[in-house]
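Quick one: sequence plus 3VV SMILES, need structure tokens.
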Amino acid sequence: MSELINAREERGADISRGGPYYGELIEQVRGLMDRARLVSPTDELALDAIGILKQLNDKLDAAVVNEWSTPTWTRFDLPARGNITLPPFMIDHADSSGVDARLTFRNYHLGGNNAAHGGQVAVGFDDLLGMAAAMHAGSITRTASLTVDYRSVTPLNTELKVRAWAERQEGRKVFVRATLHDGDRLCAEAHGLFIVLKPGQA
Ligand SMILES: CCCCCCCC/C=C\CCCCCCCC(=O)SCCNC(=O)CCNC(=O)[C@H](O)C(C)(C)COP(=O)(O)OP(=O)(O)OC[C@H]1O[C@@H](n2cnc3c(N)ncnc32)[C@H](O)[C@@H]1OP(=O)(O)O
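Reply:
Sure thing.
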């Protein structure tokens, strides 16, 4: 974890970006997303919520910045760097040998029957494989190929373990693998190819 923060800080990353309340703000947004996934509102409640959310969105508009200035690139102290598009995870260990994380899918990530949506599982793998590839290569990478094998149902609201690591690197090609476990049970595994970007490559 500290190696990850050091690697980012060397590149100007700042874990105070967004301020001390940013993590709680994102947690409240996640709580909203969880409720929105399951809510069946009365007309009155829907109208009330729409009014409050419109007002809030107008307020937040004033603080919107470009993607490179957002805290979600730098806040390695927060679940999934505070990135609400990712299932929340905490990194326990990250270095060139791999990444260990604890990840929880929430109601927002529901596919059906109390299980995580397969696409959400892939989102989690993509980010953590990308991190493993970057830590291995010492450079930011981009997903060229990602394959997920769903081995058993992935539960919601349960802390799961992810392990992601680079198997080998050939030039700019980083071959990565990952597993997702609920206790001893393998929920899913993934393998992928991540490409180190060339200098200046968009
Ligand atoms: C100190 C360091 C820092 C450490 C700190 C780390 C902290 C990390 C923090 C936070 C982690 C965040 C992690 C986020 C992760 C998310 C990543 C995404 O979701 S990325 C979005 C989705 N992906 C795209 O949109 C790609 C779209 N595709 C492309 O842009 C290009 O196709 C690209 C870049 C992948 C490759 O294009 P080309 O032009 O650069 O290279 P070409 O020559 O085509 O390919 C290179 C080699 O790869 C093979 N290749 C390419 N694609 C392949 C494929 N699909 N299957 C098999 N081989 C493929 C080719 O055949 C070639 O191989 P041959 O060199 O000839 O051996």
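The domain at 86-196 is CATH 3.10.129.10 (Thiol Ester Dehydrase; Chain A). DSSP finds four helices and eight strands in the chain.
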